Amino acid sequence: xxxxxxxxxxxxxxxxxxxxxxxxxxxxxxxxxxFETYTKAALLIGMCMDHxxxxxxxxxxxxxxRTGGANLRxxxxxxxxxxxxxxxxxxxxxxxxxxxxxxxxxxxDAFIDGLVEHAGWDREWAGEHFNQFAPMFEIGNEIDFVxxxxxxxxxxxxxISVAPLHYLVEDNRIYQITEG
Length: 180
Ligand SMILES: [Zn+2]
What we know:
alpha/beta; 6 strands
């Protein structure tokens, strides 16, 4: 938890994020800053598909790509679109505590049983589906993953700011992550 920096006031926002759409996101969500009016997106947010998270942000503020574990490796065309056509210059990558994409192997039986019982899948087919995709979507650790993913995105899109962030489902707040 030492790597997480809380945002409980404007002064807690890291200098590199202040006055940027990342700082605005933190202020809207954590600090209840009054919403400004947007006519175009200021930000691309990559966050997990998990049902326990809801962002408090203005209309038209952000493109949002939701994936397992905030993993954007397989959403690159959509990232490129948000930058090239949507005009965003910043990406907020928001991982979260207790993410289902950590330790997927422990969920293998539930995954297979669930597809067989609730989706009508053949058991063998469900097992192959899990084995094929689990290694692609496993994130290992929620905080380490967004740090690695932020580094990858910075190399891929060198003129874009990428901020690795962490959402604690226990208090519904977004935390900054120390890097380096
Ligand atoms: Zn998740």
